[in-house]
Amino acid sequence: MVFLCPQRQHDLIPQAHPPETDLALASEIKDFRTWMFQLFQQKISAAIATYPDEEDQDRLYAKIRPGLDNCPEIMVAHQRRGELQDQLWANVLEAIDRDRLRLDAVYNAHRSGSGRVELNSTLNIPVHQQKTHIHRMPGGYLQDLEADSYGSGLLYDHGVFLYGRGWFGPLNDELGQTVIHQVLNQHYPDFQPVNILDLGCSVGHSTLPYTSAYPEARVTGIDLGASLLRYGAARASVLGETVQFAQQNAESTDFGDRSLDLVVSHILLHEMPGAARRRVFAESYRLLKPGGLMVHLESQLFLEPPNLVGRYFRDTEVWANSEPYLASSKFEDFPRYALEAEFAPEAFQIYRVPGHYGSQNGDPTPRWIALCGTKN
Ligand SMILES: C[S@@+](CC[C@H](N)C(=O)[O-])C[C@H]1O[C@@H](n2cnc3c(N)ncnc32)[C@H](O)[C@@H]1O
After folding, report:
1. Is there an atom of ligand 1 within 6 Å of 268 CB?
2. Count of domains forming the chain
């Protein structure tokens, strides 16, 4: 099985390319990753055997790391890792090009969206996002080459599906569904938010599930990227959902003090440096009403790698897959960020939860970490 779920072929997904192209690439990436992890495991096992008396995992890691980075087979693997990621984007760009006229027509028919998009061309983009093309995405999240461009959003939407090979669900909404079903329903069953804000929403993959889960709520997604948001609004309209989008900085928003019930983010924190993460926690606290809840969802592999293989993978994603901020905070820093933001110590909880689609397919393994704070 290459894809866990089939992709939902909504009208903004490129349709004129042969599906076998995506399948062949996804299959190659899957096989490559299996081989790469086996290689890491084999080399790490051999390296740690040379330090039988070293029990401290941090010191052990520091000792074996240079040898891993200089191992020729591992260097080849890193090279291939980057090439396959570039190939993924190239496939998506080609698929978009083949279907450009139809996609433009769909976008134009839905561009005003069913909610609102508030763009701000004078927004100060944080320096840490200005030169970063996370995941080697051509042009990065912020590319906005022409007036009313929606290209970055289109590229991201289809690219995420291929990258996740269906593990993010038919609509790439795994993370929002996971917060709703594995965090809120399980740990805060009586919580009924009315005003919800999704920070770093990108094209709204994780934002949209909140409209179905809380039909009475006003749901807003913010991001720095205008093109992502334009596409997100059109996509929401294609899918018949009503969401508000705004171009704002999650570290310092325009929303009022104590104006929101629920502030969420989904895989935002690992893409910003530690200082920005602290500001997001402080901003979340400022925005929440008393009794309101903050939930930041992150990948367990990235925040808390379970072993040295996971740690080596995480740390080399920094340059092999352009993820510069992955290890910017130690796991134990997050409770401190919450305390500094004024969450009471007992009001900050960390939950390790399975993914929504994985658990629906019988995989209860915790894959996500939810950093949750209630404002007293
Ligand atoms: C990995 S993507 C998020 C994916 C999305 N939350 C989802 O669940 O599908 C990270 C997003 O965070 C945005 N971002 C990064 N720093 C930000 C900031 N300071 N304020 C708002 N958005 C930010 C990026 O533009 C990008 O769209």
Report:
1. yes
2. 1
Q: Which two tokens stand for residue 56?
A: 């401290």
Lay out the sheet containing 348-354: strands in order across. 117-118, 244-247, 218-223, 195-199, 260-266, 288-299, 366-374, 348-354
358-369 pLDDT, tens digit each: 999 899 999 999
Q: pLDDT tens digit string along 5-37?
A: 899 999 999 998 888 889 999 999 999 999 999
Residue nearest atom 26 of ligand 1, based on CA coordinates: 202
DSSP string, 37-58: HHHHHHHHHHHHTT-TT---HH
Measured in angstroms, how far is the CA atom of residue 59 from the centroid of ligand 1?
33
In terms of phi and psi (left: phi > 0; alpha: psi -120 to 50; beta: otherwise), the region of 162 is alpha
CATH code for position 138: 3.40.50.150
pTM to 2 decimal places: 0.97
Domain span at residue 118 reads 1-376
Q: Which residue has the tokens 């960390």?
A: 350
